[in-house]
Specification:
alpha+beta; 5-stranded mixed sheet; 3-stranded antiparallel sheet; about 25% strand; rod-shaped
Length: about 220
C-alpha cells in the first residue's frame, strides 16, 4: 500500500463534505416542495372551498361583505364548486331561542362559477337572534354557519276609525255626513223625504164690537136768552 500524502487526504475530506452538503440541500428542497404541494392540495380540494354571506335585501349579489344586522335578507354564496347543491336552514339562537327550533330552510343549486343566491327573498322573521347552517354536496368538514340579527322598525299603530258616522234621531232617512279633514266636529246634514213643515193656519179674528152710542146728559143749567 502506498501512503496518501497530506495533500491527498485533505482533498478527499473536502470532496466528501461537498457531497454531503449537496445531498442535504437536495433533500431539503424535495421536502419543501412536497409540503408545498400538499398544502396547495389542501386549500384547493373540492367541497369545502367557498363562503356564504348574509345580505340585506337589495344588496348586490357580487358584494362579498357580510351584513349581520338585517330586516329582510338573502343568502349569497361565493366560490363554491360548480353546480354544487346546497341545503340550508336557520335556527332561532339564544337569547331569542334555544338553538333547536328551525324557523326557515331551503335548497339551491349554485351556478357554473360556484355562486348563487336564495330567491325569492326568505320569509320575514321576528326581530331577534338567528344562526344559519349551510351544508352542501362533497363537504369534508362541518356545515358552514353565520349568526345574524333581524331588526325591523316597529309598525305604526292603525289610527282609530273616524267618529263622523251619525244618524238622525227621527223616522227620516239617515243623515248625510261630511267630515272637515280628520278633526271633529262633523258637519251633519239630514235629508228628509217630506217637505219642510208650514206654520199652522190662523183663523181670522172677529172685528171688535162697535163703540156704544153716547148717552145724552140731562141739562141742569138755566136757560137764558
Amino acid at each position: 500500500m502506498f501512503p496518501f500524502s497530506k495533500r491527498t487526504r485533505l482533498a478527499a475530506a473536502v470532496g466528501a463534505a461537498v457531497v454531503a452538503t449537496g445531498l442535504t440541500l437536495a433533500f431539503g428542497v424535495s421536502s419543501a416542495g412536497a409540503q408545498s404541494v400538499a398544502g396547495q392540495a389542501k386549500t384547493t380540494a373540492p367541497g369545502d372551498n367557498g363562503d356564504v354571506k348574509i345580505h340585506s335585501t337589495g344588496t348586490l349579489q357580487t358584494d362579498e361583505r357580510n351584513e349581520p344586522h338585517v330586516c329582510t335578507y338573502d343568502l349569497d354564496a361565493f366560490n363554491f364548486d360548480s353546480v354544487q347543491s346546497v341545503t340550508w336552514w336557520i335556527k332561532a339562537w339564544p337569547p331569542t331561542g334555544d338553538g333547536t327550533t328551525i324557523v326557515d330552510q331551503g335548497k339551491i343549486t349554485l351556478d357554473s362559477s360556484g355562486n348563487g343566491v336564495t330567491t325569492p327573498a326568505n320569509q320575514p322573521l321576528p326581530n331577534g337572534h338567528y344562526k344559519l347552517f349551510w351544508t352542501f354536496d362533497g363537504e369534508k368538514g362541518a356545515a358552514k354557519h353565520k349568526v345574524f340579527w333581524v331588526s325591523c322598525p316597529a309598525t305604526p299603530p292603525t289610527p282609530p276609525p273616524s267618529p263622523c258616522v251619525t244618524e238622525c234621531e227621527s223616522s227620516s232617512p239617515p243623515c248625510v255626513t261630511e267630515c272637515e279633514s280628520s278633526s271633529p266636529p262633523c258637519v251633519t246634514e239630514c235629508e228628509s223625504s217630506s217637505p219642510p213643515s208650514e206654520p199652522p193656519s190662523q183663523t181670522p179674528s172677529a172685528p171688535p164690537p162697535a163703540a156704544p152710542a153716547p148717552t145724552p146728559v140731562p141739562g141742569t143749567l138755566p136757560v137764558t136768552g
